[in-house]
């Protein structure tokens, strides 16, 4: 609208001159300025404020679908995702662009290799049934920092992780130990990774055997055999690490900790989880299971009676 353009873009010019340039009357402009703002316009401005708040809270990583899901879940938004797309585009809010990254682990060794028990069937019916793992690296001014993570396929939570300046087998066993301590899984967990020497090492095989886990390894050089882990590295680096210039390894460790524990596991929405965070998804799943058990118990009691 011409009046709005005058108010926003031509405020440095005399009103009479701006109105003449755009072919509108000065009286009409002043009448427009004193007219009460329409309710829809007020609602739109309030919605834009919420959109920006959610977008910035995500570290500028959320696109329209996740912003829309947050608005629905936390603010009772009932409009369409297309409107969110239009407003974000109008405000210049664009999620961080994706970038490629390089794989880390070395599969050229003579150590024992486990059977590929997953075979790209990344499916789990409950937590602690299938854990995936991989190792990546981060550049710092002090040198490389290596990061090993363990991902629960059902919840997409990073259940264990370890960071070290070198890439030996203990980086895997440390990540596994954290995951075991936090999640207390039973026996029979399938632990899937690539064929890297760290995963094929005696130390890792011994750890898995002691805990009665089932080891699984990808095929040779096939990134799709561990695709969810590749996807997590992609997310971590796009949403956080690529924007950083770490001076020290300790700085990188703090940042990774903040990302995994302060954002990814607790708050970051996953489209595969119905736009819920890993922790929220698991909490809702466990509450549902508890409710089912209570109903089954009540039914059994009434049947016996």
Gist?
This protein is of the alpha/beta class.
List its traits.
12 helices, alpha/beta, disordered C terminus, five-stranded mixed sheet, 3 domains, Nucleotidyltransferase, domain 5, single chain, 305 residues
Task: Tell me what the structure shows.
The protein has 305 residues and is of the alpha/beta class. The protein has three domains: 90 residues, no CATH class; 139 residues, Ribonuclease H-like superfamily/Ribonuclease H (Nucleotidyltransferase, domain 5); 26 residues. It has twelve helices and five strands. The chain has a five-stranded mixed β-sheet with strand order 3-2-1-4-5, with helices on both faces. The longest helix has 27 residues. The radius of gyration is 26 Å and the shape is elongated. The C terminus is likely disordered.
């Amino acid at each position: 609208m011409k009046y709005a353009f005058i108010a926003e873009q031509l405020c440095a010019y005399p009103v009479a001159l701006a109105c003449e340039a755009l072919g509108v009357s000065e009286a009409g402009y002043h009448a427009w300025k004193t007219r009460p703002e329409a309710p829809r316009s007020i609602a739109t401005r309030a919605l834009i404020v919420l959109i920006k708040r959610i977008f910035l809270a995500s570290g500028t990583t959320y696109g329209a679908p996740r912003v829309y899901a947050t608005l629905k879940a936390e603010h009772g938004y009932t409009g369409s995702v297309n409107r969110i797309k239009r407003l974000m585009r109008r405000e210049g809010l664009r999620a961080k662009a994706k970038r490629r990254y390089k794989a880390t682990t070395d599969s050229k060794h003579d150590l024992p290799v486990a059977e590929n028990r997953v075979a790209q069937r990344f499916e789990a019916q409950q937590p602690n049934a299938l854990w995936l793992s991989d190792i990546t690296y981060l550049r710092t001014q002090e040198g490389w920092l290596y990061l090993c993570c363990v991902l629960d396929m059902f919840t997409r939570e990073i259940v264990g992780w370890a960071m070290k300046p070198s890439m030996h087998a203990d980086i895997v066993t440390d990540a596994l130990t954290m995951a075991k301590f936090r999640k207390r899984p039973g026996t029979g967990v399938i632990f899937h990774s690539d064929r890297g020497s760290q995963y094929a090492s005696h130390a890792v095989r011994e750890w898995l055997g002691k805990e009665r886990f089932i080891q699984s390894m990808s095929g040779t050089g096939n990134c799709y055999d561990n695709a969810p882990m590749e996807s997590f590295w992609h997310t971590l680096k796009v949403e956080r690490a690529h924007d950083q210039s770490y001076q020290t390894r300790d700085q990188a460790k703090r940042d990774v900790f903040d990302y995994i524990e302060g954002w990814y596991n607790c708050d970051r929405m996953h489209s595969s989880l119905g736009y819920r965070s890993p922790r929220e998804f698991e909490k809702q799943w466990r509450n549902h299971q508890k409710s089912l058990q209570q109903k089954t118990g009540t039914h059994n009691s009434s049947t016996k009676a």
